[in-house]
UniProtKB/TrEMBL annotation:
<protein>
    <recommendedName>
        <fullName>3-hydroxyisobutyryl-CoA hydrolase</fullName>
        <ecNumber>3.1.2.4</ecNumber>
    </recommendedName>
</protein>
<keyword id="KW-0378">Hydrolase</keyword>
<dbReference type="InterPro" id="IPR032259">
    <property type="entry name" value="HIBYL-CoA-H"/>
</dbReference>
<dbReference type="Pfam" id="PF16113">
    <property type="entry name" value="ECH_2"/>
</dbReference>
<dbReference type="GO" id="GO:0005829">
    <property type="term" value="C:cytosol"/>
</dbReference>
<keyword id="KW-0413">Isomerase</keyword>
<dbReference type="InterPro" id="IPR045004">
    <property type="entry name" value="ECH_dom"/>
</dbReference>
<dbReference type="GO" id="GO:0006574">
    <property type="term" value="P:L-valine catabolic process"/>
</dbReference>
<dbReference type="GO" id="GO:0003860">
    <property type="term" value="F:3-hydroxyisobutyryl-CoA hydrolase activity"/>
</dbReference>
<dbReference type="GO" id="GO:0016853">
    <property type="term" value="F:isomerase activity"/>
</dbReference>
<feature type="domain" description="Enoyl-CoA hydratase/isomerase">
    <location>
        <begin position="18"/>
        <end position="356"/>
    </location>
</feature>
<dbReference type="InterPro" id="IPR029045">
    <property type="entry name" value="ClpP/crotonase-like_dom_sf"/>
</dbReference>
Amino acid sequence: MTQEVIFQTLGTLSGQSIGVVTLNIEKALNALTLDMVAAMQTQLTRWKTDNSIACIVLNGAGEKAFCAGGDVRAIYHASIANPNKITAQACEFFTQEYQLDYLLHQFGKPVLVWGDGIVMGGGLGLMAGGSHRVVTERSRIAMPEVTIGLYPDVGGSYFLNRMPGKTGLFLGLTAYNMNAADALYVDLGNYYVNSDEKEPLFDAMAELTWSQDNSQNHQLLSDLLTRMTQPHLASLPSSHLHQFQSQIDLLMAGDIVDVHHQLTSLNTELDWLKRAQKTALAGSPISWHLIFAQAALGTNLSLAECFKWELGVSVNCCSIGDFCEGVRALLIDKDRQPKWLFADVDAVDANKVSQLVTSPWAANKHPLADFT
């Protein structure tokens, strides 16, 4: 059996090494399994304190995707077998996934994420944790959870709420596919390199004068990536998010009823906006309410508090929300005809939303209690 995730170290002229993580299930677009998450947590924890490792790189096998999210089938099957109960599978997967994301955010050493091809859901959770987030002309980045009865988790409560205007809310509701320019605009990417420059980048990294000084290493990598980005800025595609920021803000203005009405009555010739509109209106009405609850968190919560909030909501979604039906329709039966618990956004019971956003754990018993 092929290893689902491969760990290598690259030697450099400085004598320091670079730790390379390759997600390696190309046929499944490198979607994260629990085993992959656990293996990465173990290896990255080692590399974090290994003085010979100056920097780490995360990338995906093949040319289609860095990581198309999490493989949620095991959670689905466990949840179907235990209706209305929070399962060990859901707890374990989301807990370990968020621990891994949080580790990347707190890593200290430079973390380069090669965000080429598809980067969705859980893949974006990994990417957001990187200090050096490279996008290419093939990057397609999205948070499509509204289509499966979830909401943009993996730290989305932190990074979506810090994007320009109402962009974060728009991305959560519509699952809009960002290109490289969009990603740079909302700060999910911070460097732009051509997809065929991966090997030259690795070669150049091997020649840097790495040391055991993290801030110096960050600067070295930033300088290299800035030099590699510079020649391509003129050919960067246009960003719809940037270009239509004021229209997006108007479309997303007001409360959930207003936004639903604005999206329903939207008449546009723009293909990308039509797709966004269609996805949002077909999405789970419960997800809509959760995405609004998430937006209402604003920027007051720390990253650690965001992950704690998300863990409660995510496991609740699997037991009493639309998650199972969303996964069934999209991934299991693939009929793309989900029968959501509520017919539309107006019909969603406020008690259900409040149940979903209430943590199932006391603060001291929370699986992420050690996040500070």
